[in-house]
């Protein structure tokens, strides 16, 4: 039985990027907003900084007024149904978890709407105190699951994350779409994917 570790944003979850809308509301260019937003993002994702402090520091650095927690108020993602079906098929004969860089409000939104429901477990950065691409992120998941790197397969849409996981000995796939992921999984000799049952 393999352990599959799925990223959320850009893999199972789409329409999750709030920055274009947040930049418009702030009167900033998207590249500038992303640059200032990135400064304390790791601290927010590992849970060492709260949203109020984050936006206070953002405003002080950028000069922009931020009247609300844009990560919360603008967040309205959707699940990719093809990826969800693939995950549920894998779960028939494997262990499938989410390994996600996230923030508290996003985690709460997804959890309250059952969007983590296709996973056996969720490893969220703000609860772990670790975030990708820190190698400790994957090592902690492997430790918690009682697995060796060669028994795991990681799926993410970020090249850096995939490269680090591969460096740890975890087979990994750079996600582009559900179809190419399914093809990649079928080429793995240990993979078992349950097909949807059709009846008549």
Please explain how this structure is put together.
The chain has two domains: 3-14 and 77-186, Rossmann fold, CATH 3.40.50.1000; 19-73, no CATH class. It contains eleven helices and seven strands. The chain has a five-stranded parallel β-sheet. A two-stranded antiparallel sheet has the order 2-3. Helix 1 (19-26) packs across helix 2. With 200 residues, it is an alpha/beta fold. It is elongated, with a radius of gyration of 18 Å. Strand 4 (95-100), helix 7 and strand 5 (121-124) form a beta-alpha-beta unit.
State mean pLDDT (0 to 100 scale).
Answer: 94
Count of runs of 4 or more consecutive helical residues: 11
- Morphology: elongated
Query: Biggest β-sheet, characterized?
Result: 5 strands, parallel
Query: Any idea what the CATH architecture of the largest domain is?
Result: 3-Layer(aba) Sandwich
Lateral arrangement of strands in the main beta sheet: 5-4-1-6-7
CATH class category label of the largest domain: Alpha Beta
Number of domains: 2
Beta-strand residue fraction? 5-15%
Secondary-structure element series: EEHHHHHEHEHEHHEHEH
Distance between the terminal alpha carbons, to the nearest Å?
A: 31 Å
Give the proportion of residues in helices. Answer: 40-55%
**What is CATH's topology name of the largest domain?**
Rossmann fold
Gyration radius, rounded = 18 Å
CATH superfamily of the largest domain: HAD superfamily/HAD-like
Count the beta strands: 7
